[in-house]
Each structure stands twice: as structure tokens, then as C-alpha cells.
Amino acid sequence: MKALICDEPGRLSLVERPIPVPGDGEVLVRIRRVGICGTDFHIFQGKHPFLQYPRVMGHELSGTVESAPTGGNLTHGQNVYIVPYLSCGKCIGCRRGFTNACQYIAVLGVHRDGGMAEFLSVPAGNVIPAGNASLDDAAMIEFLAIGAHGVKRGGISAQDRVLVVGSGPIGMSAIIFAKARGADVTVMDTRENRLAFARDSLGADHLLTANADAEAEAKKLTGGDFFDVVIDATGNAAAMQRGFGFIAHGGRYVLVSVVPTEITFSDPEFHKRETTLFASRNAQPDDFAEVVRQMDAGKVPTRALNTHRGPLSDGATLFKDWLRPEAGVIKAILEV
Fold it and tell me: Looking at domain 148-279, which of 3.40.1440.10, 3.40.50.970, 3.40.50.720, 3.30.930.10 is its CATH number?
């Protein structure tokens, strides 16, 4: 089979590998679509802190069942998507249902080889029927589930005014699922084109430019109250720290972003507002199911999100092209 491997930062190679042989309880999936994530770009650029090269990337995956254990709900040729988080099932996180925060989690395409290949063998529990979703749409379920999980963590409802900071793909997902819950959503970013997309394609109610006047504008927009829930999806430590200043008294702050450094905040302000702080990591099975429900309901504009595509065989060239800011990539998909 063909596989696209990141040999070292900045170098991708299309190689031949044996088709994997499924182990007990595993499904062999013929990969059809691979969504490209910011994590993949970080791996390619050598910026991922927990990765050993060489690595086959790819964790936003859809395909068809090639072979499956007997007695299960999967059949040959069935369209499926893959949950890329391989959890141990035994640690305290798993025992409490937080499989997304397993102590020993292995993520496909990061901790072990992923799906930028023609075939992948995966535990049956991580292979989910795609239902009505097309292969293109199914390859976007994972990144959308991350935003859905952040919205769930924040307990967002129709009574909330929500600020989403950062309108990359994960921020866009948070916008989609906060709007699905009926919230009033404001989006803040430095990029005017992304703000316009959030308004025109995702239904954002208000826009804020992340400049020196943002706090004053937010105060004016909310009548001095600020926001019931702030979701940070910037991946920027300075922005994460600044976000504390946009939270209403009694409000919640959800950090979907993760950075390899410390962040700090004013303890007096944190206590004065009795802020609740949430980390949001990966996604859980019900988040994936929520994405599928909202896709079926027509609430996820997948065609607008999928801006770029190309074949796996051209992946080495495409990666370099898609990294350019002027390329305007929101979500790119490799076709296998």
C-alpha cells in the first residue's frame, strides 16, 4: 500500500508499506479521506513537542470497511469514520468515562502511525458507521467534535452570550455548536477575512477585532456585563491570558487551546468574578454523535468549511502550498 510519511520536519515521502494485518478485535479500514489538521502542520514544521519521526500523520479519517470481526455492526464496504484516540480503558480517566483524557492515550497520527495511507487497522470500538454522512463530511467529524466538546464543557445554553476567541477550524466548530444551542455568539480574531467568514457562513452574531480596543468594544457590546462563556481556540498563550478579562461575573472560561508553556492570570480578578475555568481536551463519544446529529439537521456548513483538496500522491507538494497564509485554507482534505 502507499503511505505518506513525514521523515523529518519539512520532508514528506510517498512510500510503499505492507498492508497491515488486523489483530484480535481490529477492523481493517480502506482509508478514503484524510482531513488536514493544525497538528499535522505542526508535525510537518517540527513544532510538535510529543512526536518522534518518522511518522505517518493523519487523524481526521473516513473510509470503508475492508474486513471486520464477526458478530459486530460493521460490514464490508460500509462507510465509517474513525475516532483517533486509543485509550487504555483501565486508568482513572477511562474508569470515570473521560476516555479523551486517558493517562496513556495514544492518538493516531501523533503517538502512532495514522491514516495518510491506503489502509489502517484500528480497534473495532474506534470505527463508527458514518450513517448519512458522505466520506468528505465524515472526515471532518473529528475536528468538529473537538469544538462540540468545548461547548459542552462550558455548559452553553440559549441564555448565554458567548465569545469565541480564534476563528481557525476549531474556533469555527465552537461557533457552530454554540449557535446550535441557541447562544448569542461573538467572534474575536485578528483576521478580518476569518471574521467575515464566521458571520457570513457560520452565523456569528457579532464580531470583534483583536486589537488594543477589544476590551472596550466588548464592554460596550454587552452593556458592561462581558460574556457568560469565553472559549479560547487561539493556541496563543498571550491570547489565552487576555481572555480572562472578557468573562462576566459568574462566567465560565473554556480553554480548548493548549500551549507548551505556563499561562497566568490575576487571582483577585479571578476571585472577584468567581470565574469557573475548564480545560477541554479532545472529544468524547457523545460529542462525535452530536456532530453527526447536527450534520443530519443541516446545521454544519461542511461545503463552506472544506476549502481545499487533492490526492494523497500529491501530498508532499500540497502540504507546502497549504501552509502559505495566502492559500486561505480552512479545512483541506486528502483523497486516498
Answer: 3.40.50.720
- Determine the distance from the C-alpha atom of residue 202 to the mean position of all C-alpha atoms in its chain, rounded to a whole number: 16
State the Cα–Cα distance between residues 105 and 83, nearest whole angstrom: 12
With a CB cutoff of 8 Å and minimum separation 6, the contacts of 16 are 1, 2, 3
Query: What is the location of CATH 3.90.180.10 in the chain?
Result: 2-139+301-335
| pLDDT tens per residue across span 154-208 | 999 999 999 999 999 999 999 999 999 999 999 999 999 999 999 999 999 999 9
* C-alpha cell belonging to residue 187: 467572534
- Cis peptide upstream of residue 22 (ω within 30 degrees of 0): no
Here the cell at position 305 is: 468549511
Q: How far, in Å, are 11, 138, 312 from residue 318 at the CA level? A: 12, 21, 9
Scanning 181-284, the segments in alpha helix (DSSP H) are: 192-200, 214-221, 237-242, 267-272
Helix (H, G, I), strand (E, B) or coil at 180: helix
Residue pair 318/310 in contact (Cβ under 8 Å)? The answer is yes
Numbered ranges of CATH 3.40.50.720 in the chain: 148-279
Start-to-end CA span in the chain (Å): 11
DSSP, residue by residue, 235-256: --HHHHHHGGGGEEEEEEEEE-
CATH of domain 2-139+301-335: 3.90.180.10
Instruction: Say what the pTM is.
Output: 0.95
267-313 pLDDT, tens digit each: 999 999 999 999 999 999 999 999 999 999 999 999 999 999 999 99
Its sign, for the CA torsion 301, 304, 305, 311, is positive
Burial of 155 (0-12, 13-18, 19+ CB in 10 A): middle
